[in-house]
């Protein structure tokens, strides 16, 4: 409860009645607004007296309280109990008094403050002159203008600071992006340098491995080659056995119909092109140590258009072409070539027979050529592939060996070509496995369809050659047979069917050699090999034309255009 209510409870009954009577009689608004509470504490009392002129006096009762006895305190307790009973009956009156007193206590200070403020304002208005009021108004207006300017300056400065912050942020972002891009470039360069260093280290290790290990590997490979050479010799022994067992006259050429060996001067014109091609190959074999640019131009300027074709082809294919000759400089091949040449020179012009069926010179040439081809093939197959041999090289070598086993491919030796012909035949194995060395040096492997096409072209050319050769042999044994009587217009063995079948024979040989040369296409080395094949075939035809009668040569205009009698 509020303080006035508590004070009323503690008053005696008479005072309560007097207070009720005073309330019932009524008071003025001034008395209601400023209630006069009674002294609630007998020791330190505080009383507020209000005069009409709004003056306050504080009366302090400093007299100490008297000491009461127990009897009086008990009597006092009885009076308070009676007072509480009376207060219960007078609850409504007390509640009204409490509400009025609380309103008065809360509203009195506010009213006083408001009244004082109003009085101060009236006093200031009465004391201020109009001039002072104008000065104050001007100062206020000026202050407002200054404040607006300050606010506008602050706003502009904030906008400028925001723009500068945004521009600085964009600059920072651009610089960060540039730094990131430069860092990425530096990282990429570092990665590239690391990869290059790893590659160089790997290449160095590979070179060390190649330089340290090949001796033992080459020993093993040469042992394998030696075993394969023995296998080739066994194949040659089978060929010899075939010649011994064969009892028919078709197994060998009839030596009675062959003319004598001609002079060296008569074959110079025919073999100038093989000699030139051989010298050109040897010339470019030396390019392994000397570049092509250091060669003198007179080496290539005396043989005409064919020289130009060969030189251009070899220059464009020099890098891979020299890789082929690198394999040709292996000591076993050099030794085999020397032995092969010596054997041909020793047995040149030897017309002795091994038994009654085998021509010794032909047998020696076949055996030596087959061994050369086998040796070059297996060395080329395992030279650059230490683990798995190149099956394309092996297939090509097998096809060439199958052709070399045919003794009908050696008519120039049996017709007596002289020393240049012997040199040509001794170096012919190099031209036979030149494509094999190319495939091995450049690690070229043909697919299944490529090898099937190679075999099919080779078989077609060989069948054409073999069929024409069989007709030639049959005609040489019996040139006046009734089967060829309708073609016999010259009256001797030169005319007739020989003019028909000789050129298909050379055409078959040309197709066979082209099948070997096509393995290196579309490189320029293929053009070189094709050109050499055509030249060798054409030159063989020219040699045969020289050997034959002038009667038949007068009737043909070219060695590749046959004379067909009508």
From TrEMBL:
Compositional bias of kind Basic and acidic residues: 17-36, 48-58, 77-87
Annotated TM spans: 225-245, 271-290, 302-322, 328-348, 360-382, 413-434, 446-465, 524-541
Region feature (Disordered): 1-87
Protein keywords: Membrane, Transmembrane, Transmembrane helix
Domain of life: Eukaryota
Basic residues bias locations: 1-12, 65-76
Protein name: Uncharacterized protein
Species of the source: Nezara viridula (Southern green stink bug)
Lineage, opening ranks: Eukaryota, Metazoa, Ecdysozoa, Arthropoda, Hexapoda
């Amino acid at each position: 409860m509020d303080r006035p209510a508590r004070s009323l409870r503690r008053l005696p009954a008479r005072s309560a009645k007097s207070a009720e009577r005073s309330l019932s009689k009524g008071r003025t608004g001034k008395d209601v607004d400023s209630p006069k509470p009674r002294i609630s504490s007998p020791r330190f009392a505080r009383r507020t007296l209000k005069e009409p002129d709004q003056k306050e006096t504080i009366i302090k009762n400093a007299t100490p309280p008297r000491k009461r006895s127990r009897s009086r305190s008990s009597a006092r307790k009885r009076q308070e109990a009676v007072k509480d009973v009376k207060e219960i009956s007078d609850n409504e009156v007390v509640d009204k008094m409490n509400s009025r007193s609380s309103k008065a206590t809360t509203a009195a200070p506010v009213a006083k403050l408001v009244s004082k403020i109003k009085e101060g304002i009236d006093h200031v208005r009465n004391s201020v002159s109009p001039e002072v009021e104008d000065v104050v108004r001007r100062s206020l207006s000026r202050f407002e203008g200054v404040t607006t300017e300050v606010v506008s300056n602050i706003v502009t400065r904030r906008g400028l600071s925001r723009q500068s912050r945004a521009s600085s942020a964009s600059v920072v972002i651009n610089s960060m992006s540039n730094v990131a891009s430069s860092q990425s470039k530096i990282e990429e360069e570092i990665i590239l340098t690391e990869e290059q260093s790893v590659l160089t280290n790997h290449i160095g290790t590979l070179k060390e491995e190649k330089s340290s290990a090949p001796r033992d590997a080459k020993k093993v490979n040469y042992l394998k080659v030696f075993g394969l050479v023995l296998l080739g010799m066994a194949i040659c022994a089978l060929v010899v056995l075939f010649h011994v067992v064969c009892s028919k006259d078709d197994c060998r050429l009839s030596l009675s119909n062959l003319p004598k060996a001609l002079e060296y001067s008569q074959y110079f014109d025919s073999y100038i092109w093989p000699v030139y091609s051989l010298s050109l190959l040897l010339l470019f074999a030396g390019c392994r140590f000397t570049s092509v640019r250091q060669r003198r131009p007179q080496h290539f300027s005396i043989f005409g258009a064919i020289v130009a074709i060969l030189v251009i082809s070899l220059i464009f294919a020099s890098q891979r072409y020299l890789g082929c000759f690198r394999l040709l400089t292996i000591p076993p091949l050099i030794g085999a070539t020397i032995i092969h040449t010596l054997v041909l020179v020793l047995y040149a012009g030897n017309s002795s027979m091994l038994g009654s069926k085998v021509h010794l010179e032909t047998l020696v040439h076949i055996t030596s050529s087959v061994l050369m081809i086998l040796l070059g093939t297996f060395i080329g197959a395992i030279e650059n592939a230490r683990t798995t041999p190149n099956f394309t090289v092996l297939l090509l070598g097998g096809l060439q060996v199958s052709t070399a086993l045919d003794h009908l491919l050696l008519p120039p030796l049996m017709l007596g070509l002289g020393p240049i012909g012997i040199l040509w035949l001794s170096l012919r194995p190099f031209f036979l496995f030149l494509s094999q060395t190319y495939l091995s040096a450049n690690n070229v492997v043909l697919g299944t369809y490529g090898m099937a096409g190679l075999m099919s072209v080779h078989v077609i050319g060989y069948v054409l050659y073999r069929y024409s050769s069989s007709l030639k042999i049959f005609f040489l044994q019996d040139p006046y047979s009734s089967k060829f009587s309708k073609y016999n217009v010259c009256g001797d063995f030169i005319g007739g069917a020989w003019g028909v079948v000789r050129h298909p024979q050379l055409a078959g040989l040309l197709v066979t050699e082209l099948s070997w040369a096509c393995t290196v296409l579309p490189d320029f080395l293929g053009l070189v090999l094709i050109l050499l094949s055509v030249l060798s075939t054409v030159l063989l035809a020219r040699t045969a034309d020289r050997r034959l009668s002038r009667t038949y040569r007068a009737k043909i205009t070219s060695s590749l255009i046959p004379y067909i009698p009508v």
